[in-house]
What we know:
mainly alpha
Amino acid sequence: MSKKLKNKEFHFSLGVLFRWAFFALVIYFSINFLSNNSSSTNLFNYSTNNRKILGINTEPVIIKATQTYEDYKNQALIFLNNQFIDIKKQVITKVYEEIIKSIDNPQK
């Protein structure tokens, strides 16, 4: 930052309010967009058509491998959804803390 900006006092105005509102809307819509796209896209696309054609779908080893794969896929999707929820919470908490700090200490 330049010295000119460091010594400048903060004045709350309508422009500052619009900037904060715009920033909050961008964060809100980006979080919603990312969370909706992550749950709607299939990250682990796996087709069983080849096994059905070959007739190896009834083998015990294949059945066990398929069940294990499905379990891991479900665990990964649950983990990703939990991570998105945690990121949302962290972003909202940080924005909230920064707003409280700016209200409490307008000189800094």
